[in-house]
Amino acid sequence: MSELLRVRGLERHFGGIYATAGVDLDVGAGELHALIGPNGAGKTTLIHLISGALAPDAGAVAFDGKPVTDLAMHERAGLGLVRSYQITSVFPHLPALENVRLAVQSRARDWGSSFRFWRPAAADRAMTEEAASLLERVGLAGRGAAPAADLAHGEQRALELAMALATKPRLLLLDEPMAGMGHEESERMADLVASLKGDISMLLVEHDMDIVFRLADRISVLVAGRIVASDAPAAVRDNPEVRRAYLGDEVVPL
After folding, report:
1. Does the chain have fewer CB atoms within 10 Å around its N or its C terminus?
2. Are residues 237 and 125 in the same domain?
3. Rounded CA gap, 7 and 152, in Å?
4. What region, left, alpha or beta, does residue 63 occupy, with left being phi > 0 and alpha being psi -120 to 50 degrees?
């Protein structure tokens, strides 16, 4: 498996507290790599650093062999390193289809500048058809006309994922996509993420261990800002240090 994302020595501190303390992490092309750890381990900070939402105090990030440490978030997204749910704000009063169409249109390299007011009608049709196809892919085929604000929580998460997919990501950073969902919604989102495996590389942060161990090709465990294990799910499940990391935290069925 070829390496798509390479993180080395990534550090970020807030005052005297290190949220990440020399993190090394690799994600292979086509891999679904899960990142788990106790509350406060630094998982979201690490996603911020990889996506470009935060600058590191030390360390480096490379994507597809190219250094991206000094690139802004939108520049990384342009290369295909995309963070779901924080790329484009959902417009609550616009229909779901229009939300996704705007995300499709944002790919200026494919469609020409987003500020061209006189695009050929064929380009508009193509963008609308692509947006409709993306809604169908995330299970919202019949909800295109509904305002985003009227969608259920799980549907809004699916809409945000459709908008992320519209940017044609090569690596998708998923930060707790099942957060706030009930069991049925979580299972639908898990099935959706599973359907993307092999087509898009993913780095998944998720608290639902059943879903993590079901979906992941490899799991890295972050504890107090450091990776303490990175291996296949079965090896991580049996790792004594990983089990110790969860003692005193919520009971997690590894």
Report:
1. N
2. no
3. 36
4. beta
Residue entry with tokens 């995309």: 82
Name the pTM for this structure. 0.87
In which domain, by residue range, is 107 found? 89-166
| Each residue's pLDDT tens digit, 138-160 | 999 999 999 999 999 889 989 99
* Same-domain check for residues 151 and 179: no
From 166, 201, 230, the end of a domain falls on 166
Give dist(CA 25, CA 35) in Å, integer: 10
Coil, helix or strand for 61?
A: strand
Phi, psi of 66, deg, nearest 5: -110, 135
Q: Produce one character per residue of 89-123: b if its CB has 16 or more CB atoms within 10 Å, e if not.
A: ebeeeebbbbbbbbbbbbbeeebeeeeeeeeeeee
Q: How many domains does the chain have?
A: 2
